[in-house]
Write a structure and sequence with these properties.
Layout: H1 24-48, E1 52-59, H2 65-72, E2 81-85, H3 91-94, H4 100-103, E3 112-116, H5 125-128, H6 134-153, E4 156-164, H7 167-179, H8 189-195, H9 198-212, E5 219-223, H10 227-245
Parallel strand pairs: 1-3, 1-4, 2-3, 4-5
Helix pairs in contact: 1-10
The chain binds adenosine-5'-triphosphate (ATP) and magnesium ion.
Length: 273
């Protein structure tokens, strides 16, 4: 999304596949290569240990947040990646400012942080369910922009992704969960209650994206109805961000620096004692 422009979610096709390298099969093949590239960037980011990447995932229930995390990050070293799911706030969390629980989960230098839901719930669910007065959530857009700018200045690249699906597709996926014994565990009554607020959520998303997409922390609307396209598009966005970041391994020190601590003059394999 270009900063300063409306999100226009209603005009975006959630089943769009424009830009994909080919049909489903070709795109899935390309995704395997993308995963290798993602893994290599992550290794460099971790080695460099100076900067970080934050991936914010938002979307309606059943839009594929969990599936995206599972597929997109399947090739990376778990040591350098941290996923944080933001649920209904605990009493302690509610008793603090809304960014309190978020900031402490921000990725450390070298890490990729993944937010499965995020501080955006504080202008989405909170707005739709009228959990705070309007002037409170209205003020949060500016706080969010300032917070993300601060993360950016501290060396964190912030990438925000909305997984865009239609009302029909959500209905289809929820019904599938209802009837598939392997997926039923994912269902909650609240999914259907939330669904009844679909239109209000779309308005809340529209405002949130429009008011918080900045050059430091842009929003991307990812057409998410075709999972193969969604996975490809998400990785492509992350690869673009990492190529710009271009993390480098720190230079290896010259072997002479270790001469005094090496117990064997020749650096061959360990002798068997
Ligand atoms: P899953 O259902 O796959 O476990 P989920 O993200 O849907 O994942 P839930 O515990 O079902 O997890 O839902 C989290 C709920 O918490 C969502 O309905 C979300 O809107 C709500 N939530 C998250 N953050 C806040 C917040 N700050 N204030 C109010 N509600 C929130
Ligand atoms: Mg849920």
């Amino acid at each position: 999304m270009h900063p300063g422009h409306g999100a226009h979610l209603g005009r975006r096709d959630p089943a769009d596949t424009t830009g994909a390298p080919g049909d489903r099969q070709a795109t899935e093949a390309a995704t395997l290569e993308q995963i290798t590239e993602l893994s290599s960037w992550q290794d460099r980011l971790w080695g460099e240990a100076r900067r970080s990447l934050l991936v914010v995932l938002q979307g309606m229930d059943a839009s594929g947040k969990d599936g995206t995390i599972k597929h997109v990050f399947r090739g990376v070293n778990p040591q350098g990646v941290r996923v944080c799911a933001f649920k209904v706030p605990t009493p302690a969390e509610v008793a603090h400012d809304f960014l309190w629980r978020v900031h402490r989960e921000a990725p450390a230098a070298g890490e990729i942080g993944i937010f499965n839901r995020s501080h955006y719930e504080d202008v989405l669910a909170v707005r739709v369910h009228r959990l705070v007065p309007e002037d409170v959530w209205q003020g949060r857009y500016r706080d969010i922009v300032a917070f993300e700018r601060m993360l950016h200045r501290g060396g964190t690249t912030v990438v925000k992704l909305l997984l865009h699906i239609s009302y029909r597709e959500q209905g289809r996926r929820l019904a599938e969960r209802l009837h598939d014994p392997d997926k039923g565990w994912k269902l909650e009554r609240s999914d259907f209650l939330e669904r009844s607020h679909w239109d209000e959520y779309q308005v809340a998303f529209e405002d949130a994206l429009t008011r918080t997409s900045t050059s430091e922390a842009p929003w991307y609307v990812v057409p998410a109805e075709h999972k193969w396209f969604r996975n490809w598009a998400v990785i492509e966005i992350l690869l673009q961000a990492l190529r710009v970041l271009d993390p480098r391994y720190p230079p290896a020190p010259p072997p002479e620096e270790f001469a005094d601590v090496l117990d064997e003059p020749s650096a061959g394999p360990d002798p068997v004692r």
